[in-house]
Amino acid sequence: VIRPDDRDDLMRDLLRQPRPGTVDAVRAARVRRAVHAAWRDGGGRTAIWKWRVAIAAAVLLAVSIAPMLVTWLRERGAPQVTAPIASTLFATSEVVFEGRIGDVLMPGTAVSTHGGRAAIALANGVELRLDSDTAITVDTGRRVSLARGAIYLDSSNRRGPPEPVEIAARGTVIRDIGTRYEVRLSDGELRVRVRDGRVEVSSAFGMREADRGGQLRVTSSGILSGRASTSGADWDWIVRAVRPPQLEGRPLPEFLAWAEREGGRTIRFADPALERANNATIIYGAIESLTVEEALDVVLPSCGLARRTDGDVITIVAADDASGASKGR
Amino acid sequence: MYNGSERELVRRMLGGDEDAFDEFFTDYFPRLFRFAVLRLRDPDAAEDIVQTSLIAAVRHLGSWRGEATLFTWLCTICRREMSAWEKRTSRRVIVSLAEDDPGLRAALDSIGAAAEAPDAGLERADTGRIVQLVLDHLPPRYSRALEWKYLEDLSVDDIAARLQCTPKAAESLLTRARDAFRDAFAAVQAAGKEGLS
Predict the structure, then answer these.
(1) What's the Rg (C-alpha) of chain A?
(2) Among residues A127, A135, A123, which one has the least CA distance to residue A243?
(3) Contacts A225 to B, Cβ<8 Å
(4) What is the b/e burial string over A245-283, where b = at least 16 CB atoms within 10 angstroms of the residue's CB?
(5) How far apart are CA A155 and CA A137, in angstroms?
(6) Which of B31, B33, B51 to mutate to test the interface with A (most CBs of A within 10 A)?
(7) CA distance A322 to A308
(8) pLDDT confidence of B76, banded at 50, 70, 90?
(9) Interchain contact, A11 vs B30, CB within 8 Å
């Protein structure tokens, strides 16, 4: 039995015994990020804040009640000035919010869809699309609370500092790290499907990240990770939540860029010569109410082209060469 | 006593001090992770549980009264999370704890650092593991000071500089740290022997 005493050599021998391994830095950093976020969100600071706020409020009241009263009396009836944090882009029928399409939204504005769908743009350019039967509150310019339904977030047009937008739902917070993803609430779970980029999900069960093609489900028993398709029919609603693109007289590459972004599949030409030959092609007509797949099937044949779908990749071929091409769906 | 600096740390965290958070995480995450992984033998599960435990802890920091050491309090939360994990996953925590022994508990509490009762795995453990266990249960300033002195061979003056105190205070702290280490080490060894008998 080793019995350490105050002699330095024995203490040194003991402390230099091989010990269990250290915690790896990547793991520590991962946990630190989640714990730090929870700490910054408030939590334990609530108690101290309570009395600080109470004291501050009492002091403020004592010092400023008279001038405030005068100011209030002077400005009685004057509208409050609050910076807008978002604006509405689009809404089909049966969308409820305080305002009209194109209006700016103030902090705390509630938007709900019933049969319809809607899209709003936050002040930093991040776009949110609301599926039918969805209810949200735009808390701030970087935070939205989801009460029911589904949201699709597209941050590809974000302006300014790359600060994440948070979607809060049932005690879970979803943060984007430059991405496009869907959050859907149902009775039993909250599901996050990532189409592009990366997403961080923090809940009472911990923090998880998912990247393109990843899916996280927050259930009563924990966060379950898995894979999900980035394209297909159950993504079609996001196209119907925004105004359809105006393609009349626009070049084909612009349409293809839209189809790639909204459809979730990479689009490429079978060969560079075919791509060069079609760079200047101008398209005509409208694709209103069509899904991405349907739009491709309308537009491409009008340009003498066809498509071949293989998983998450669509290859464009000349219609003449498409005898063996399958539409894939 | 020991809890003075921990109270101060918690007070600073409650005030939103980022340095205090760094200190808290650096001191307690590795210890709590070792605490969990020792019992679960599954680093990924341990990570989840420790993360959940620390999130719960920082959200309820105001409820820590300082009656037990901060690490003891964190271990209590961690045990609760391990129980919940067992229920959720139908998996078992591999190492059971003999922590209901009131005599051992009182003895360990009396030295100011609530140590874990040795478990079946510990009976076969090497000295290094016992040393780590004891260090994990000492106040962080004590553990750091001992490691600086005996692993890094720092002088008392250097330790004082790191602790931002006088050399005399550092020497005093080292003495207390050695005493605490000795008492805790002896308590764990004695309990281990009883377990074997």
Answers:
(1) 27
(2) A127
(3) none
(4) bebeeeebeebbebbeebbbbebebbeeeeeeebeeeeb
(5) 18
(6) B51
(7) 8
(8) confident
(9) no
DSSP secondary structure letter of residue B100:
T
Q: Where are the beta strands (DSSP E) in A141-205?
A: 143-154, 166-169, 172-176, 180-185, 190-196, 198-203
**Contact A20/B25, CB-based, under 8 Å?**
no
Interface contact A5-B16, CB threshold 8 A: no
Instruction: Read off the pLDDT of residues A154-195 as tens digits, 9 standing for 90 and up.
Output: 988 887 777 788 899 888 889 887 789 999 998 878 999 999
Any idea which of A159-168, A293-302, B1-10 has the lowest mean pLDDT? B1-10
A249-259 residue pLDDT tens: 888 998 999 99
Q: Which amino acid is at B45?
A: A
CB atoms within 10 A of CB B71: 23
Q: Is the pLDDT of residue A103 over 80?
A: no
Contact A19 B186 (CB under 8 A): no
Answer whether A56 touches B (CB < 8 Å): no
Nearest Cβ partner for A31 among B13, B54, B63: B54
